[in-house]
């Protein structure tokens, strides 16, 4: 009887060995799986916050302005982190905006390479979202937005320097002596003399343009005078327009009267009052609300005597 009991006990010991082996194998597999998940999870958490988007850099008009165009993917500006555009005059162009599909933002390259870089909140991680070749602006910026903001609220004069920022103030804005603005301008009275403006112009009063290139449209509540070799993309006045020895590449519109002498308007002209053309060329039609006086000029390819203006209400 004792011998039988010993045999049974020995059988139990031999049966325990496979059970222990299987248990150890399961423990090892579980441990390896946990370590793998931790490593993969850690890598995912590290790179996950960076937005994934398709971006493009395109030229804007004939001037040095470019636009960053969002073509699909994550909305920029929604996630934590900071976006910096390297190689442009306004590197914080994406800092305070949300850019989603088909949206765009203007930038002014100052380097031959422009890169859009995302930085994590803690600054320990960064990703280059896109990189492009670009044509730098003709003048390196002397001042930026901080300089403009320190002078906002009153009159502002840009004399012979290049400012890379939108310029906005309730007072008078003067740009002269080779002064250049890489951005839009918004002010009261605006005076340009021998200047370069790479942006649009909005004035609550009048605009006086002399020997200046404006790579954008002018929209003024008051009179607009464009003189002496100036070139403007387009102009709209809430009062009168006087064009003399200058070129408007788009349309020229006034709520009251237009007078052009030795001027060129490549598109339509439209005024609710009188239109007076002297030795000028209008590429489009003339929409006139009152009297039409035309001499030594052409409108839509016709000489004055052969052209009949259209009614202003049709514009």
UniProtKB/TrEMBL annotation:
Record flagged with keyword Transmembrane: yes
Pfam families the record matches: Pilin_N
Naturally occurring in which organism (per UniProt): Natronoarchaeum philippinense
Residue ranges of every copy of the Archaeal Type IV pilin N-terminal domain listed in the record: 14-86
Keywords associated with the record: Cell projection, Cilium, Flagellum, Membrane, Transmembrane, Transmembrane helix
Domain of life of the native organism: Archaea
Name the record gives this protein: Flagellin N-terminal-like domain-containing protein
Transmembrane domains' residue ranges: 20-43
């Amino acid at each position: 009887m004792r011998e039988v009991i010993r045999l049974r006990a020995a059988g139990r010991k031999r049966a325990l060995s496979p059970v222990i082996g299987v248990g150890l194998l399961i423990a090892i597999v579980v441990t390896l799986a946990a370590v793998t998940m931790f490593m993969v999870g850690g890598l995912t958490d590290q790179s996950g916050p960076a937005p994934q988007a398709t971006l493009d850099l395109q030229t804007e008009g004939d001037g040095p302005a470019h636009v960053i165009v969002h073509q699909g993917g994550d909305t920029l500006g929604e996630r934590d982190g900071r976006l910096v555009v390297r190689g442009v005059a306004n590197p914080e162009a994406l800092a305070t905006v949300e850019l989603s599909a088909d949206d765009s933002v203007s930038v002014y390259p100052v380097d031959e390479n422009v890169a859009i870089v995302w930085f994590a909140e803690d600054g320990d991680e960064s990703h280059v979202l896109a990189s492009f070749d670009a044509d730098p602006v003709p003048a390196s910026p002397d001042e930026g937005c901080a300089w403009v903001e320190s002078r906002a609220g009153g009159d502002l004069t840009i004399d012979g320097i290049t400012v890379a920022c939108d310029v906005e103030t309730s007072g008078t804005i003067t740009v002269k002596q080779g002064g250049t603005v890489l951005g839009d301008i918004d002010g009261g009275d605006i005076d340009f003399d021998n200047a370069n403006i790479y942006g649009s112009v909005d004035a609550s009063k009048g605009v006086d343009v002399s020997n200046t290139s404006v790579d954008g449209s002018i929209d003024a509540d008051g009179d607009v005078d464009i003189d002496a070799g100036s070139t403007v993309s387009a102009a709209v006045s809430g009062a009168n327009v006087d064009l003399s020895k200058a070129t408007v590449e788009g349309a020229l519109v006034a709520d009251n009267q237009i007078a052009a002498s030795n001027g060129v308007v490549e598109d339509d002209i439209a005024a609710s009052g009188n239109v007076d053309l002297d030795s000028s060329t209008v590429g489009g039609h003339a929409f006139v609300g009152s009297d039409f006086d035309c001499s030594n000029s052409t409108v839509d390819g016709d000489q004055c005597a052969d052209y009949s203006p259209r009614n202003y209400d049709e514009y």
